[in-house]
Amino acid sequence: MADADPISRATAPRGLLLVLPALVAFQAISTDLYLPALPAIGRALGAGVAEVQLTLSLFLVGFGVAQLAWGPASDRWGRRPLLLLGTALYTFASLACAAASSIETLTAFRVVQAIAACSGVVLGRAVVRDLFEPVAAARVLAYLGTAMALAPILGPILGGWLTLAFGWRATFAALALFGALAFTGVLFAVPETNRRKDPSAVRPRVLLANYRGLFADRLYLARVAVAALGYAGIFTFISGSPHVLIDAAGLRPDQYGLCFAAGVAGWMGGTFAAGRLNARLGLPGLLAIGTRTSAVAAILGLGLAFASPPSWPALVFPMFLFMAGAGFTLPTAMALAIGPYPDKAGLASALLGFLQLLFAALVGFVVSGLYDRTAVPMMAILSLASLAGLLTARFASPGSDRSSR
Q1: Are 350 and 72 in contact (CB under 8 A)?
Q2: Where does the pLDDT of residue 237 fall: very low under 50, low under 70, confident under 90, or very high at 90 and above?
Q3: Whether the predicted pLDDT of 1 surpasses 50
Q4: Domain presence at residue 6
Q5: Domain-located, residue 10
Q6: CA 206, CA 170: separation in Å to the nearest integer?
Q7: What is the pLDDT of residues 284-293, one digit of tens each?
Q8: What is the pLDDT of residues 93-103, one digit of tens each?
Q9: Residue 328 lies in a domain
């Protein structure tokens, strides 16, 4: 290992590598499990498409903003105690969502759920940075992406079944169970990995100075931008596909779950391939393959959207290819962004996640506002994000950063 006094895989509890995928999957499971229930939530609570969309978009806003607190706090007090707090709060908020009687109450507790959920993602990435140097961290994050892809693959399928059998509230009961299991996993399998606790990490003056330092790092910002644009494309599909495939194409919630799972299978294949090809291609090669594949897939999807009415084959095939490219791009860009900051891994991870999700939330508002019962607006936004990511990747080259080599 390049860093001083890290906990190695040999000395860490074996269960840690099982808990990490669950931690970094909190966002995916929190959004994907209830996607098939979105139309049912609108009908049950008397809410329109835009109001229901707020339960998704404001989740991302809360998730993104809260990262700015979880990351620095973990640099100060450690990863483990904050993970325990976050998973416990997540379980409570999920139960409150299940009991909500109005769209306003549901949206409010979705924000609380988001604040809690982001602890797993931010601190999970920080744990990986505590244990691995940047190149190895990119490989580990890629393999974690393969494992956590089970959440978006199985989530919509399970969510569709639960919605049909028990109603939309059952999806949030399932999320509460997930939170309780994650809390148990942290309690018994996650050691404290932060060996460089900084007593000044949460002091306002120091915190502002640290954030200014990250914003002044153009290479860091370029890598964050690549990750943000890639995730914006993914969220375009997450936020737009339920309405296109269920409302416009006429699929049942369980059928939608299968279509969504087919798209996410591309992510699983991409992250697995990126992990295997990490040493052979290097980080620049992984970024190039990922961004090019996603751009080609998005343009193909836009062409199919113009050529035919909404149908699942015209949407699922290009999204499979897009997600495969994203599986190369996102773990690589994240590892490159956080890698040069071993002393501020929580902070760097938090700012990355905040900017990524803030942009994705804005994209969600645009997708819902432009929805016209076709796939054209969704695929057009996906194409713009993919092309921008392809161009931005040229400025995120690891060659100008010694720590990423």
Answers
A1: yes
A2: confident
A3: no
A4: no
A5: no
A6: 44
A7: 888 889 999 9
A8: 999 999 999 99
A9: yes
CATH assignment of the domain containing 275: 1.20.1250.20
**DSSP secondary structure of 338-392:** HTT-GGGHHHHHHHHHHHHHHHHHHHHHHHHHH--SSSHHHHHHHHHHHHHHHHH
What are the structure tokens assigned to 89, written together? 């709060």
> Is there a contact between 333 and 392 (Cβ–Cβ < 8 Å)?
no
Amino acid at the residue 239: S
Domain total in the chain: 1
Structural domain span for residue 209: 16-188+198-398
User: Going along 244-367, which residue ranges are E strands?
Assistant: none
Polymer length in residues for the chain: 405
Torsion sign across C-alpha atoms 4, 5, 8, 12? negative
Joined tokens for residue 368:
């819902």
DSSP codes of every residue in 2-68: -SSSPPPTTTS-TTHHHHHHHHHTHHHHHHHTTGGGHHHHHHHHT--HHHHHHHHHHHHHHHHHHHH
Inside any domain, residue 318? yes
Per-residue CA distances from 307 to 71, 198, 300, 302, 351 (Å): 46, 57, 11, 9, 40
Highest mean pLDDT among 86-100, 154-168, 250-264, 310-324: 86-100
Token pair, residue 69, equals: 């607190």
The residues, any chain, with a CB within 8 Å of residue 144's CB and separated by 6 or more, are: 20, 21, 24, 124, 128, 271, 331
Sign of the torsion formed by the C-alpha atoms of 159, 164, 165 and 167: positive
Q: Which residues of 312-342 are buried (b: 16+ CB within 10 A; e: fewer)?
A: bebbbbbbbbbbbbbbbbbbbbbbbbbbbbb
pLDDT at residue number 8: 43
Cα 157 from Cα 294, distance rounded (Å): 24
CB 233 within 8 A of CB 294: yes
